[in-house]
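User: structure tokens for this one?
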Amino acid sequence: MTGRPTPPRRRRDGFTLIELLGVIAIIAILLGLLVPAVQSAIRSARIAQITAEISALETAIANFQTDFQFVPPSRLDLTVPTSSSTEEFQPATVSIFRRMFTNIDVTTDAGTIQTNGTFNSTPNSVIDARERLEFIGIQQVRRASQAGDEILRGGECLVFFLGGLDADRFEATASPNDKANLVGFSKNPVDPFEVASSNRIGPYFTFDVGRVFDARSSGGRSVSALGYGYWTYIDPFPGQGLPYVYASTEESGVYRQSTSTVEATAAAGGDLPELVRADGANFISEPYRQVGGSQFWNPSSFQIISPGPDGLYGTGGVYDPDGNSELGQDDEDNVTNFSNGTLGG
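Assistant:
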């Protein structure tokens, strides 16, 4: 007697809903673990890129120092003399340029630049070193929109001394939206600010012109609130809105600090107006300090600071590489020339 034949087993055509949901859940978990890791790796790579660029800026400053025996100052007063055709610029300014160019003439006034920044004659025909400095000072006022403030500060000085003169800004057709054309300095001992000469010294650093901005050509970046008028340099972090800042002890041997009950006044008086913090009833503007508070980082040279991925400088304070810093959250991702990566580690 033969048994009944066993019916063929039905072939399964796909996953059940429960199995599919399980697979989706596993993929979501893996992505949740992978995405932060990838983002962290990208962030670390970009911070390393900024660190390398700051190191390159340090090398450029060292080369500048080799040629001129001092590091670039972080404050340059280009107030235009008005009372006399032989009146000099501020003594500190004259001293800086005569240390760079012993025979520079900043007293003769050829009378070719008007106080509104326009030329009375063709550029580079009857223009001397004094006239060129006057022109930079006047442009500083026009571009920073701060009448009477012909002072280059911090990051502006970094670009000016390492990049040199912007040739295009001596042209009558120059526009505030023009890209930077930094050509170093002329080797003409009397007029190092001549832009037509092919015999030049510098630039000491090759600035990426796509990241060189001033207050009016910032491409939407919020640098105008800081009063920048000359060129400043933005770090390579995508979407960065604020430039590198620079503080040097060259001019007076120490960093310039400032304290005031008014925040804007404190900012204006310090070497790092971008770093201002409240201290009781006062506001303080100063570079970063070491643990203990009595010593600045790089006390006899300079500080270079990037605002980091968050695009914010913070308020300054005490930085400790061993993890005992007294810093605000906005400071912690800043990248500097005295920290290994970000201030927050």
